[in-house]
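Lab notebook, entry 226. We have the chain sequence and a SMILES string for pyridoxal-5'-phosphate, and the next step in the workflow is to get a structural model of the bound complex before anyone spends time on docking refinements. Request logged below.

Task: model protein plus pyridoxal-5'-phosphate, output structure tokens.
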Amino acid sequence: MAIADNLTAIRADIPEHVELVAVSKTHPVELIMEAYNEGQRAFGENKVQELTTKAPEMPDDIQWHLIGHLQTNKVKYIIEIVHLIHSVDSFKLLREIEKRAKNKNRVVNCLLQLHIAEESSKFGLDEDELFEIITSEEFSGMEHVKVKGLMGMATFTDDESQVKREFEGLKAVFGRAMAEVPASGNWTPEILSMGMSGDYKLAIECGSNMVRVGSAIFGARNYNAG
Ligand SMILES: *Cc1c(COP(=O)(O)O)cnc(C)c1O
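Result returned:
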């Protein structure tokens, strides 16, 4: 039971205030159920299609996290399934989530994704864009989204000092946003989602309280498996 052992080891490693999201992308339902049977309830997927295929095949008390880039035209497929969208990277996307959530009479939990990595390929807002959104009149009128915090992905590098710098940078932006923008109905900053298999310990040291861990639980991913 490698998955059970991995989960036990990771849980022992992270403090109680940190939530573990098990990133199950590319893995079949049978393997995800092994983690479920160990008490894991929060699972992360990065593709809409995969999430909408797996969710109906699995127990109802799972909390599904969407962690990958979300296209506006796919919001409608997940709006009734998703527990938390980590990857809101534009006002346009937030508007679409508001619209679709309103249609379904729901309030959808979101994180705003900040671009903290050096690579230009990673999605996310910059600090100015974040503040534009959360201080806007339009945002304060949104009643069907709840922005609960921020998410970021560090550069994929062995240079730990760089990763640390990026995590600390995100933590600082989070602190500034909490200090300068008073909490309200749809701005309740409490979650800082940062850290993956290779860097979750460092992320927690830098202030993360939600880590997204895939390969350290389920093993390496095989993207060619279908
Ligand atoms: C795949 C993925 C993870 C997990 O990566 P691991 O290195 O396998 O832990 C975390 N966050 C996001 C956004 C991902 O796409």
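Notes for the group: The first strand starts at residue 19 and ends at 23. Worth checking against the assay data. The radius of gyration is 17 Å.
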